[in-house]
Amino acid sequence: MSFQVKQPTLVIGLGGVGSKLAIKAKDSINSDCLIISNDVKDFSVETPSIHVSTDSVVNPSVQLIRGSTYKVADEIKSKIAGYSTIILMSNLAGKAGSAIAPVVSEMCKESNKGLISFAVMPFKYEKDRIFNSGISLKRVRDNSECTIVLDNDSLLESNPDLSPKTCYDIANSAIMHVVESLGSSEISSETNILTTSKEGQNIEDSLRDSLKMLYENAPPNTVKRSMLYVVGGNNIPVGVLNSITNLTSGILNESNSQVDMTSTSEESKVVMLSSIQGMTKFDNYDPLGMIPQEDTLDWSTPDCSIDCKLDLYQLE
Questions:
Q1: CATH number at residue 76
Q2: Which residue, 71, 93, 94, 200, shows the most beta carbons closer than 10 Å to its own?
Q3: By residue range, what is the domain housing residue 102?
Q4: C-alpha distance from residue 248 to each of 107, 186, 256 (Å)
Q5: pLDDT band, very low/low/confident/very high, at 264 (cuts 50, 70, 90)
Q6: pLDDT, the chain, mean
């Protein structure tokens, strides 16, 4: 079943990376935009925003930011009330993204909004961020009709010579290609893995890197359908296009692969979006993630810190 984008549409950006992606997405699909962050540096004068205040705490934890988000819940709900589709942009490697994404996605679900979530996952060396990103992704997937995940770590694994900044640029570019195609191509209403390659490669090498990145995220038997976005397809020889189409069909099963060549970019590369049914490597980010859902006790509200202001005295 494919995700249906309905007007009016609101793009919500969370934190620094999410806000930049949301502003770009707003311009490309002609929608409204909202920025939510605990850092006022992420806001722009032209874009509506909601500040999640952590009061005097300079370096707040993920749980504190999340608890503070609930304090502005009514403001967030009023902002999303007039929209049918919400597009949520978040970097789950960052504190703001991993803290706020579960809360906002929960509000969208409770308000019966069509929610498509874009989530960027951390590098492997960011060990202090992996657990929180895994917990947040699990919540976001449960609350969203469609989730699109891009893993920075698998991009770096395929291209170890890249700097983190270059990885971010490649990831952001891939996300924007998918956003721009929302009105013209079908996206599965489930978990989707977004993969791509670095620039400056021939199209066959780009496809190879995209497949390598995909299989680092999920086993081959979990891939149910793939959409192949051939960026700059109008500049690629027809014989080469036919070759990569046949190759993709042979690997992914012909009935489950599609090719989209709507991009008119000057650069030429492959961006692949694959729907997944089953376990991904992100399920291992939470040590308890392997336990089946029916055998797990979990809070309906994600972990957060709140100041109860209880006047408790020390007992001796």
A1: 3.40.50.1440
A2: 94
A3: 1-144
A4: 38, 18, 10
A5: low
A6: 81
